[in-house]
User: Fold this.
Amino acid sequence: MKALVYHGPGQKAWEEVPEPTILHDTDAVVRVDAVTICGTDLHILKGDVPAVTDGRTLGHEAVGTVIEVGTSVRNVKPGDRVLVSCITSCGSCRFCREARYGQCLGGGGWILGHLIDGTQAEFVRVPFADTSTFAIPEGVSDEEVLMLADIGPTGYEVGVLNGRVAPGDTVVVVGAGPIGLSVIMGAKLFSPARVVAVDLADSRLEAAKQFGADVVINPSREDAVEIVKSLTGGLGADVAVEAVGVPESFEQCTALVRPGGTVANAGVHGGPAVLHLEDLWIKDVTITTGLVDTYSTPTLLKLVASHQIDLARFVTHRFAMDDFMEAYDVFSAAADTNALKVVLTR
Ligand SMILES: [Zn+2]
Ligand SMILES: [Zn+2]
Assistant:
């Protein structure tokens, strides 16, 4: 079969590899019907994630059809249409028992396309298939569900729920890429007074408006802190969500939040950021961090199936899997192509 294989920083190829087989009796092998590329894959290709080694098939998001299951798999069977989520869960370790699947100690967590071969392939082996796949409801498209493999629950759990967004809040989202847009969409479910999007790219601010942002700010021209203060009686945001992953945007979030508010970090950081405790120590601010756990995926699946949220809006470009290299080019040049999420199908 063909797969997108990492060969060290800057090096990748869509090439022939052996098909996956059942290695453990809790595994399933899934035929990949639709797959996407994540910003995290671009970090890997830059060499930012040294645990990913030469020869690894990338990808941690897919929708597919179960082909084969191990002898102890009970919940899924060949022919089932399933979501393969970015987080694998053993289901029985200390963290899985408190729904912190991202921190799984039993061999799960973020392993696909990281520590084991991933989903950017014609077939993928999914460990702990009973607790790591989700059955797809009737009438929901592959594209819609695919957005729940990562960006849907990541924005909702790490941004909206960690940020404790509540009705009437002013929510500021710094970074209007796919995760930031997912945060905006999820925050709207809680009837905030307003959602403010901050980004340096006007095209992303335009997308933020389409996803429900009420106010957009380009900090290259405007002072985000001043504008948010003017909207909130001088106090600042109830919730500030960091969705970029650079020091400046984290530091900006801590300047944007009101006393007693929450800063929720969703960005993937590659270096240190300054924590201005000389300003923050007196402000009763809560700062949260987190990797997605995907405990919200069943809830989000119901919202998709009942058309309360429209995740298909994330999909800007479509390719055949044989055009994987071109899909990476388009996705990694998002500033020029306006790509949010690309979908590849068989
Ligand atoms: Zn991802
Ligand atoms: Zn576990």
User: Anything to note?
Assistant: Residues 14 and 322 are 8 Å apart (CA to CA). The longest helix spans residues 151-161.
